[in-house]
Amino acid sequence: MRNLNVSRSIFFLFLMLGMLSGCTVKYVAEYDSSIKEETVQIAKKVDLFWGKLIDTPVDDRKYDAFKDQYNEIETDIRGLLIKNQIRELNKVSTRQVNNLLDLWIEDKDIHKSSDTFSDFEAKRHRKQFVRVFIAIAKGEEVKKMGASSSESNETQ
Amino acid sequence: MSFDIESVLKDMVGAINDSAKEDVGDIQEYAEMIIKNEKESLKELGQARILGEISDDVFDREIKREKKVVETELLTIKIMTEAAVQKAVNAAIDVFITAIKAAI
Predict the structure, then answer these.
(1) Which residues contact B44 (CB under 8 A, 6 or more apart)?
(2) Confidence check: pLDDT of B81 > 50
(3) Considering the entire predicted model, what is its pTM?
(4) What is the largest CA-CA distance in chain B?
(5) What are the distances in angstroms from CA B102 to CA A12, A120, B3, B98?
(6) Run of H or E residues at A112
(7) What is the average per-residue pLDDT within A48-72?
(8) Which of B11, B27, B67, B86 would you mutate first to test chain A, the one with the most A CBs within 10 A?
(9) With a CB-CB cutoff of 8 Å, which residues 109-148 of chain A face chain B?
(10) Structural domain count of chain B
(11) Is the dihedral of CA A35, A39, A40, A41 positive or negative?
(12) Region B56-67: what's the mean pLDDT?
């Protein structure tokens, strides 16, 4: 008797969920391939930046020589942040891109204040950005997973 | 056509289980990668401080950055989990709708 009541409760819970949400529930934003692609493009730009910086002798790593690239990449990241911010159900991805922006601005400030960049930090930060970009791109990619089987069939 | 709620519920639970099985492996694999990355990164940082290659200031700054990096990675796990739950619930609702349509 108790099992029957539990079953009925679950049944009505699903029924309500279906009715309230037009038959599908949604916890994550729709997958957007253009955002994933843009994330990968910025990742390549950031990696190239670190490659050039590491190839430059430490004494020649003046902030002025890199400031245009810092600003250009900062603008790219801010653009990506806005695109994420305006999407519904996308607070988590927005937080990820905010972290990316914080890390980039911190590097710009470190470089600006010391007017050089150590090998240790440059190599380490390069790896950190790879991890962060993989996390953001993967976070976008897995939104495909959230599509229901009927939605997936429609898009195939 | 008859509508057997017990049978439909069983099928709905089956749909949730099938859906979850596919996604748990992916989440676990990525979580293991995060732990591996973090372990290597902290090992490198600790050694650099012990050997005097970096100052306390740099060490402290790196710890703060590391928190931000790993938080970003763990947020991906959160998205993966939410997407997996969304998929499982929708799979169960699909089963229910199919059963209702068949009974009409």
Answers:
(1) A124
(2) yes
(3) 0.86
(4) 78
(5) 19, 65, 8, 6
(6) helix A91-114
(7) 98
(8) B86
(9) 110, 118, 120-121, 124-125, 127-128, 131-132, 135-136, 138-139, 142-148
(10) 1
(11) positive
(12) 97
3 state SS of A31: coil
Best mutation target among A24, A148, A152 (most B Cβ atoms within 10 Å) is A148
For the cut 80, the answer to whether the pLDDT of residue A22 exceeds it is no
Tokens representing A94 are 């927005």
Cα–Cα dist A7/B9, whole Å: 7
Q: What local confidence, expressed as pLDDT, does residue B104 receive?
A: 81
Q: Of B30, B79, B86, whose CA–CA distance to A90 is shortest?
A: B79
Task: Provide the 8-state DSSP code for A59.
Answer: G
* Residue to test with chain B: of A17, A138, A153, most B Cβ within 10 A: A138
Candidate from A129-138, B69-78, B92-101 with smallest mean pLDDT? B92-101
Q: Is residue A120's pLDDT more than 60? A: yes
Q: How far is A151 from chain B (nearest CA, A)?
A: 10
- Are B85 and A125 a contacting pair at CB < 8 A? no
| Helix ranges, chain B (H) | 5-50, 56-103
CB B1 within 8 A of CB A3: no
Place of tokens 């970003």: B72
Complex confidence, ipTM: 0.90
* Average pLDDT value for residue range B79-85: 95
The pLDDT value given to residue A7: 59
**Least CB-CB distance to B83: which of A10, A142, A151?**
A142
- Between these two residues, A41 and A9, which has the higher pLDDT value? A41
The interaxial angle of helices A91-114 and A119-141, nearest 10 deg, is 170
Which residue segment(s) compose the domain that B34 sits in? 5-103
